[in-house]
User: What shape does this take?
Amino acid sequence: MSRPYLSIIAPCYNENNHLFAGAQEILRSLAEAGYDDYEMIFVDDGSEDGTRDVIEEITRGNNRARYIFHDRNRGRGAAVKTGMAAAGGEIAGFLDVDLEVHSRFIRPLVEAVAGGADMAVGVRSFKSPFGLDALFRRLLSEGYKLASKIMLNMDAKDSEAGFKFFNLARMSDVIQSAESDGWFWDTEVMLRASRGGFKIAELPIEYIRRNDKKSSVKPLRDTAEYIKSLFIYRKRISRGEI
Assistant: This one.
């Protein structure tokens, strides 16, 4: 099998209710963007709700789609790394199959990498209906951004968005060297890329919160872990380890 131009990684954890529709919409977006030389890799991170059955149904008879199953829940970062390690595309990226960021934004990020960026990242504008949950998540996002700028000297507009594409030949070592297996993985990759002098393109994307989906993010627990990771990596920077 020849090397595909584009690899799409779909990390999954308990996505049963919307996985099939999300995957079909991603494929539709790829077709509308004119991409026909691609592969799609589903990485299930120990789901407990029938997600694997849906993945097997989607990939059955589709020579552009395949899957990898983790034997246990290891974290979103670990799922992305697994997919990236298996990817064969010149350009590889990942997005969440719930499509809170729609797959139509794949094209501008891919074009940014094709145009010379080593890495293209989405910068979210929050389009969710106003409510306490939306406000809380927006405040968390702004807090993360401010904290990473102060503690890690990062000037990223949005380091945590789960919508990133890479020149795989140039960025594979950075992707796999990231040690975080959870949600901090996104920030760590941005940190390593920026400190390594790689060219990072930041492009606008729209985030619309799905109220029909139970998020796997645990705000209090994950915020505590994020803050802990900030202190750890600040110390590592001071030691010259990154």
